[in-house]
């Protein structure tokens, strides 16, 4: 568990960048050989792009770095449980391990609503670790939405 803390902190740093842009604070990093090779934060509002999720941005960067669509020997850290789109991308990229901070009761597809990362019928299954720095990841989101409601 301890080895995951610095990388989840890097994902939290990414989420803070999203928050500074008034985006929902979600961040992700892709790690290869203990080096961060992809970083991403939610940019859905800024880019007006429904695909601009933290995980997809980090995966794209990591693929460019490795010059490969298969992210073998990589780990993806994300502050919030992946949605169906990102879980699909994680399977497509053949990422062996995903570590996430807090569950998403509205869209989580890494075990909460569905488990696309460990679906027997797919040709790839992902090892999932949840709850790393859960408090931090979760309170960032609740505080963001609380502020948003305060303004409205
Ligand atoms: Zn997503």
From TrEMBL:
Cofactor note: Binds 1 zinc ion per subunit.
Protein name per Swiss-Prot or TrEMBL: tRNA-specific adenosine deaminase
Binding site for Zn(2+): 53, 83, 86
Enzyme Commission (EC) number: 3.5.4.33
Recorded catalytic activity of this chain's protein: adenosine(34) in tRNA + H2O + H(+) = inosine(34) in tRNA + NH4(+)
Keywords: Hydrolase, Metal-binding, tRNA processing, Zinc
Active-site residues per Swiss-Prot or TrEMBL entry: 55 (proton donor)
Record function comment: Catalyzes the deamination of adenosine to inosine at the wobble position 34 of tRNA(Arg2).
Necessary cofactors: Zn(2+)
Quaternary structure, from the entry: Homodimer.
Gene transcribed to yield this protein: tadA
Source species, domain of life: Bacteria
Family: Belongs to the cytidine and deoxycytidylate deaminase family. ADAT2 subfamily.
CMP/dCMP-type deaminase domain: residues covered: 2-120
């Amino acid at each position: 568990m301890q080895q995951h803390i610095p990388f989840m902190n890097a994902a939290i740093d990414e989420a803070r960048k999203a928050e500074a842009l008034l985006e929902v604070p979600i961040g992700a990093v892709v790690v290869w050989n203990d080096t961060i090779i992809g970083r991403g934060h939610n940019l859905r509002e800024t880019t007006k792009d429904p695909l601009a999720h933290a995980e997809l941005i980090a995966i794209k960067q990591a693929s460019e770095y490795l010059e490969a669509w298969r992210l073998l020997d990589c780990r993806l850290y994300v502050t919030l449980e992946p949605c169906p789109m990102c879980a699909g991308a994680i399977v497509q990229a053949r990422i062996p391990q995903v570590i996430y901070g807090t569950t998403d009761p509205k869209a989580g597809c890494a075990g909460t609503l569905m488990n696309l990362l460990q679906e027997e019928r797919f040709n790839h299954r992902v090892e999932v670790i949840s709850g790393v720095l859960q408090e931090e990841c979760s309170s960032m989101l609740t505080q963001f939405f609380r502020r948003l409601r305060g303004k409205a």
